[in-house]
Design goal:
The complex is a heterodimer of chains A (about 575) and B (about 160). Chain A has about 575 residues and is of the alpha+beta class. In chain A, about 40% of the residues lie in helices and about 25% in strands. The longest helix of chain A is centred in the first third of the chain and has 30 residues. Chain A starts with a helix and ends with a helix. The model of chain A has no long low-confidence stretch (mean pLDDT about 90). Chain B is mainly alpha-helical. Helix content of chain B is about 65%, strand content about 0%. Chain B has four helices and no strands. Chain B is rod-shaped. The chains are: A alpha+beta (about 575), B mainly alpha (about 160).
């Protein structure tokens, strides 16, 4: 009996041992079998997911801290097909509460692409619609409808939003739903704003908790523009287009001492929240921002650069007399005429600017000589991009004597802004040299960046001194006197302004048009301590072809707004307050 | 010789005693294994719980960031130039002209120049999850032993 029991135990022992050995052998066999790698890879695939941690796109503020571009939550709406929801009920609820097409939803659920278990219905569902859907789901809680609707999921993500709609849109650019940035600040500073996306393997096993990377948001940008000035400028420009019947227009407002752009209005404008209307708003080759992207022949505003160069070189002085006996002047065998084809008699240089005499400025350019004339124009930045921090800047064209298409007459015509194409921002930059005691500053839109909680202010960038401080002061005086003598429509009572009109015929294949012009005005003030520099350009105004009758009054409207918004007292008040304050 | 054999027999343990000793040893081994398994389960469960909490907190942080972005956008929309102008006009205000403004000198007043969006508490650049939440029990033991030996070896 005892022996029998012993053998039974021994047999069980052997059997269990053999079973154990067999299990171990099988495990080893599985581990080193040809399929092992496949099984391991299969297991790894389902042990976690590759997640992309995209930072929130940096915000954009104006100089006073008003949000111009931010982010808002949108939802990706999807249905879990493994829950086998009733397609009809889901489609009805999606149509009513999410605004989705019934047929699209029904087909997506009943006829999904092969093999998928989750179908995306909409990638950009607004939060209020999601809330309405959730509320409905709550009201039907406990019913079969709720069970069907439980298969609908909402995944939040951020989308770009522009709270001011079309305000400053030409400067800001836009970001589409694929997160591609187009134009303006958005494109220029896309790398900074977008930040760095981090990709990481995240295991589903909660015991293997991985630290989700702390993805810092993209840099926040503070712009130089002032929201209030921008709004006022855009309103004035839009009204001007209606009043004068112009095709398009640009107004740029800058601080001549720093190059900061306070406002930049350009037409047409897009609401970047509805960027998909781009093709309708900008048909053909319409530039997104004419102020930096459209070069044109500006006409007489260039005379301030010619005169500044000649005075700086010492070939003329303000009191130098040019005797305009015929109203014509010949350069390179070609006769140049005044704007009215009239002779104006003896004129000093202030008179030449005041009456905008083409023949006088052509003569001044010949006195300067082509070498010095073009050297000065290049020093003023003509023919080169200014380097403003906005995308798609156009360098314009300044033909030089060594170019094959340059002719001697170009020296004369270039002197009064014909045969040379520049962008409004180039003219603004060149004029800062005169308004800012000879120092030319780079125009810019970015004032500061904020990254990792630290704000970095950008310094002023002086990019050259094309003329001396003495020349700049002389030019300020001459331009101020010439406006007053002319009783220009640009003058603002109480404020000293220096400036110049421009009326340029438009070049076509058949020569220059007579009835269509580019009307411009550039001016700044107060002359003794400039706080603003304004450039106005109206393309093809219909009520009058003259810049003095269209662009000049627009300049005045802008300045009248500026002095209020910037808190600039009239000259007399300012000087008395300053002296009293001391 | 017989004496020796008798002595061995006398002191040889009875078979049942030998069996009990083996049984005791096995039971001791089982008890130790159960103890280690218990500790392991306890630590693993706590680690899992902490991991879940971390994930939940991180999800909460994400939700808060989204909510903040929405609030900022809503605030900006509510105070946009167009809306503020409408409110002002509804209240009977109109845009000021330069003639309507009186300038006075306010002694000691320093106008604000620009804005500063710097935050006092910069974002931490590294993760602040303790290693205990990501280590296995064995890694934890190994680290403890290493640190213990390092600290004892470092003492004079």
């Amino acid at each position: 009996m005892k022996s029998n029991l012993f053998w039974r135990f021994r047999l069980i022992h052997i059997a269990l041992t053999l079973a154990g050995v067999a299990i171990v052998v099988q495990i080893i066999h599985i581990l080193y079998s040809p399929e092992a790698e496949t099984i391991r890879a299969y297991g790894k695939t389902y042990s976690g997911q590759i997640w992309e941690f995209s930072p929130a796109r940096g915000e954009i503020y104006d100089r006073k801290g008003q949000l111009l571009a931010g982010n808002k939550t949108m939802y990706e709406t999807g249905v879990d097909l493994t829950a086998d929801p009733d397609a009809n009920e889901v489609a009805i609820a999606a149509q009513i509460y999410l605004g989705l097409d019934y047929g699209m939803v029904f087909n997506a659920i009943t006829q999904p692409p092969g093999g998928i278990v989750y179908v995306v219905l909409d990638k950009f569902t607004p939060g209020d619609k999601v809330q309405a859907f959730e509320d409905f789901r709550e009201t039907v809680k406990g019913t079969t409808t709720a069970e069907n609707l439980a298969a609908v999921y909402f995944q939040p993500h951020l989308e770009r939003t522009y709270p001011e709609n079309s305000l400053a849109a030409n400067m800001l650019g836009f970001v589409d739903r694929n997160k591609w940035a187009y134009y303006g600040i958005e494109e220029k500073y896309n790398t900074l704003l977008a930040g760095t996306t981090i990709t990481r393997w995240v295991p589903v096993n909660p015991n293997d908790a991985q630290s989700i990377p702390d993805v810092p948001p993209g840099a926040t940008l503070i712009l130089t523009i002032d929201r209030e000035i921008q709004a006022a400028t855009e309103e004035i420009l839009d009204n001007a287009l209606n009043i004068y019947g112009a095709d398009s227009g640009v107004i740029v407002v800058a601080d001549p001492k720093t190059g900061e752009i306070l406002a930049m209005a350009s037409t047409p404008r897009l609401n970047p929240n509805e960027y998909w209307t781009y093709m309708e708003t900008f048909p053909g080759e319409t530039p997104y921002n004419r102020a930096v992207s459209q070069a044109y022949e500006p006409g007489s505003v260039v005379k301030i650069l010619t005169m500044a160069a000649a005075i700086d070189k010492g070939v003329v002085r303000p009191e130098t007399i040019y005797d305009d006996r015929t109203g014509t002047f010949e350069v390179g065998g070609i006769t140049i005429y005044n704007w009215d084809h009239a002779a104006w008699g003896p004129q000093d240089m202030i008179g030449c600017l005041q009456h905008s005499l083409n023949v006088c400025l052509a003569w001044v350019a010949t006195q300067l000589g082509q070498q010095d004339f073009y050297a000065y124009m290049q020093n003023f930045g003509l023919g080169h991009v200014t380097g403003i921090d906005l995308a798609a800047e156009n360098p314009g064209r300044l033909k030089l004597p060594q170019d094959s298409d340059w002719y001697p007459v170009d020296l004369g015509t270039n002197a009064f802004g014909q045969g040379v194409s520049i962008t409004p921002i180039q003219m603004v930059m060149a004029a800062t040299a005169i308004a800012n005691n000879g120092q030319m500053v780079r125009p810019h839109v970015l004032k500061a960046t904020v990254q990792n909680g630290v704000q970095r202010d950008l310094p002023v960038e002086v990019i050259g001194s094309p003329i001396s401080a003495a020349t700049a002061q002389t030019m300020n005086w001459m331009l101020s006197i010439s406006l007053e003598n002319e009783s220009s429509l640009s003058l603002v009572p109480g404020y000293s302004i220096a400036g110049k009109t421009g009326t340029a015929q438009i070049p076509t294949e058949n020569g220059y048009t007579i009835e269509k012009t580019n009307a411009s005005f550039i001016g700044w003030g107060p002359v003794d301590d400039p706080k603003f520099l304004v450039y106005v350009w109206l393309e093809k105004p219909q009520t009058s072809i003259w810049g003095s009758e269209t662009a000049a009054p627009v300049f005045k409207q802008v300045v009248q707004k500026l002095v209020v918004l910037m808190g600039i007292p009239p000259d007399q008040v300012r000087l008395s307050l300053t002296s009293g304050g001391r | 010789m017989n004496n020796v054999t008798n002595l061995v027999k006398k002191y040889r343990q009875a078979p049942w005693r030998v069996q009990r000793q083996w049984l005791g040893l096995i039971l001791l081994g089982v008890a130790l294994a159960a103890l280690v398994a218990g500790i392991y389960l306890n630590v693993t469960a706590r680690g899992t719980l902490a991991g879940r909490q971390v994930l939940m907190l991180e999800a909460e942080i994400t939700d808060n960031k989204l909510a903040n972005a929405d609030l900022e956008a809503n605030l900006a929309e509510a105070s946009s130039t167009e809306k503020m102008e409408q409110h002002a006009q509804a209240l009977g205000f109109h845009p000021a002209t330069s003639e309507e403004i009186t300038y006075v000198v306010v002694p000691g007043y320093v106008p604000q120049i620009g804005i500063n969006l710097s935050t006092a508490d910069p974002q931490p650049a590294v993760s602040n999850i303790k290693p205990e939440y990501t280590q296995t029990l064995f890694e934890w033991f190994a680290l403890r032993i290493q640190s213990a030996s390092a600290s004892s070896g470092g003492q004079p």
